[in-house]
């Protein structure tokens, strides 16, 4: 646990030191759970968004994009259920005065039990090697069976209690499991209470006539209320999808773990409209497709797992999370939900307007069912950044800090370095910059010794360093250094674009799906 905490501190520190993420309004001591993306962070975030958009919209003939407004008519949120049901179960510790999400306390406890089981499995795997039958071990080893049964029992009881709104039983479960305040160890808890997460605001020139509005807590509803507009104007045929990226806002009382849980965050989601009765096959399709998208980035298959929901939201008939192994354990990265026809029917009811599709093949009108995929862009940023940040011991015993970002996402694709600041080398380096910047985000660095400049580029996650030296003046070749291997090759300046393109093109990365 201490090692994980140290890793997480390094992630936060590195993000600030190298211009990826700053605390918002830091000159005024900051604002809790609000962050600014700095010069390198904004590039990495943009690249993740574009990688998602290309795979989701550009590569699918039946998915189009949308950019709906943040402010929506307040009845939207009544119809969606957010006014009445968008709550978190909160619990306070009477001694520490700290506030926690009750469900997260229980889920974290269950996850620790799961990790105990995983530890036993890993030990056996190391002991038996290739002869190890993991499935047989999981079902026959008494200790593992006990751990997993206990975890399942806890998660199912929590799901039942939350689903029934039985907050007394949630507290009873916390007490029975002897869950303590993570910071102080105190078990002196208050009752569990529900807290609505929406931010309120007003629209109007005067306080007397102003309309009460909400900052949207999710981007999905902008898609649902525009369903018919998009379908008719785009002549879309079911099945089809509408994708959107954008800001959402939640008044998280328990906001922690850096950018994992923020009050202002960005979502990348797609609502896929299907015939009623076909939603489950599309649900399975998108589970597989979305996991393959994540795996294409090469962050390690072992860092992902599916978690099926015990407690379903009021709109869903199936739901699963793709969880990622963050520095603080496995947590939700993306949700895939079968939302049924709840949203469109609710907006029909509250607006008085039909939101139906005429299916020419069936010769009938119906309200489509919806399968949703929704990934947090900020969480995706954290997953990529934290996994990529590594400390390496080199052959000579020295160490280097390297940010092994997937090259396709790296903020800067190459840094061009003149060996010295004279003899015409800077001029050649800047000419290379001028040629490459039409296709890639590239940087120029002439300060310090070349070794230090390499280390700086490593820490920024730059895949290539291109060094211009005196031989360049003779034969128009340069040294290109690869970040991950530190291997150096002598190549022609004319070949640089093709070499970089081969490593960073979205096509090459997405074809791994």
From TrEMBL:
GO molecular function list: ATP binding; bis(5'-nucleosyl)-tetraphosphatase (asymmetrical) activity; glycine-tRNA ligase activity
InterPro entries cross-referenced by the UniProt entry: aa-tRNA-synt_IIb, aa-tRNA-synth_II, aa-tRNA-synth_II/BPL/LPL, Anticodon-bd, Anticodon-bd_dom_sf, Gly-tRNA_synthase/POLG2, Gly_tRNA_ligase_bac, GlyRS-like_core
Annotated ATP binding sites: 250-252, 260-265, 332-333, 376-379
EC number: 6.1.1.14
Entry's Gene Ontology cellular component terms: cytoplasm; extracellular exosome; microvesicle
Highest taxon above the source species: Bacteria
Pfam families, alphabetized: HGTP_anticodon, tRNA-synt_2b
Positions annotated to bind substrate: 101, 218, 265-269, 372-376
Keywords: Aminoacyl-tRNA synthetase, ATP-binding, Coiled coil, Cytoplasm, Ligase, Nucleotide-binding, Protein biosynthesis
GO biological process, one term: diadenosine tetraphosphate biosynthetic process
The Aminoacyl-transfer RNA synthetases class-II family profile domain, residue ranges: 151-418
Catalyzed chemical reaction(s): tRNA(Gly) + glycine + ATP = glycyl-tRNA(Gly) + AMP + diphosphate
Coiled coil: 107-134
Compartment(s): Cytoplasm
Function recorded in the entry: Catalyzes the attachment of glycine to tRNA(Gly).
Family, as annotated: Belongs to the class-II aminoacyl-tRNA synthetase family.
Assembly behavior: Homodimer.
Listed name of the protein: Glycine--tRNA ligase
UniProt source species: Flavobacterium cheongpyeongense
């Amino acid at each position: 646990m201490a090692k994980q905490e140290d890793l997480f501190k390094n992630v936060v520190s590195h993000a600030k030191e190298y211009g990826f993420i700053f605390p918002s309004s830091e000159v005024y001591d900051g604002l809790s759970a609000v962050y600014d993306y700095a010069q390198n962070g904004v590039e990495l975030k943009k690249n993740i968004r574009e990688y998602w958009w290309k795979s989701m919209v550009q590569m699918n003939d039946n998915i189009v994009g949308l950019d709906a407004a943040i402010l929506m008519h307040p009845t939207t949120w009544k119809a969606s259920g957010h006014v009445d049901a968008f709550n978190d179960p909160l619990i306070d510790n009477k001694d520490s005065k700290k506030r926690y999400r009750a469900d997260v306390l229980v889920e974290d406890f269950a996850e620790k039990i799961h990790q105990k089981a995983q530890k036993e499995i890993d030990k056996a795997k190391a002991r038996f090697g290739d002869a190890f039958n993991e499935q047989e071990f999981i079902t026959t080893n008494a200790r593992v069976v006990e751990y997993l049964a206990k975890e399942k029992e806890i998660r199912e009881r929590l799901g039942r209690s939350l689903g029934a709104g039985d907050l007394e039983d949630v507290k009873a479960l916390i007490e029975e499991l002897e869950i303590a305040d993570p910071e102080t160890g105190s078990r002196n808890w208050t009752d569990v209470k529900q807290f609505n997460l929406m931010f309120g605001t007003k629209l109007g020139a005067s306080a007397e006539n102003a309309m009460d509005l909400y900052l949207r807590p999710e981007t999905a509803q902008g898609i649902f209320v525009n369903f018919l507009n998009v379908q008719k104007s785009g002549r879309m045929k079911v099945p089809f999808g509408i994708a959107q990226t954008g800001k959402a806002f939640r008044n998280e009382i328990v906001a922690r773990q850096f950018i994992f849980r923020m009050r202002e965050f960005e979502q990348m989601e797609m609502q896929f409209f299907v015939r009623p009765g076909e939603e489950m096959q599309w649900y399975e399709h998108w589970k597989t497709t979305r996991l393959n998208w994540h795996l294409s980035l090469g962050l390690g298959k072992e860092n992902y797992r599916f978690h099926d929901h015990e407690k379903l939201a009021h709109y869903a008939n199936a739901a699963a999370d793709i969880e990622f192994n963050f520095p603080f354990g496995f947590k939700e990265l993306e949700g895939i939900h079968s939302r049924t026809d709840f949203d469109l029917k609710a907006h029909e009811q509250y607006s008085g307007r039909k939101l139906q599709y005429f299916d020419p093949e069936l010769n009938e009108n119906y309200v489509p069912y919806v399968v949703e995929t929704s990934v947090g862009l900020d969480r995706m940023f954290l997953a990529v950044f934290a996994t990529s940040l590594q400390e390496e011991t080199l052959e000579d015993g020295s160490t280097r800090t390297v940010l092994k970002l997937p090259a396709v996402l790296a903020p800067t694709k190459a840094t061009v370095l003149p060996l010295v600041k004279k003899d015409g080398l800077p001029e050649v380096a800047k000419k290379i910059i001028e040629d490459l910047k039409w296709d890639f985000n590239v940087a120029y660095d002439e300060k310090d010794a070349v070794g230090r400049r390499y280390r700086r580029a490593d820490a920024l996650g730059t895949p290539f360093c291109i060094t211009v030296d005196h031989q360049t003046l003779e034969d128009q070749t340069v040294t290109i250094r690869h970040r991950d291997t530190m291997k150096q090759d002598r190549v022609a300046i004319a070949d640089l674009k093709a070499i970089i393109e081969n490593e960073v093109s979205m096509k090459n990365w997405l074809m791994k799906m």
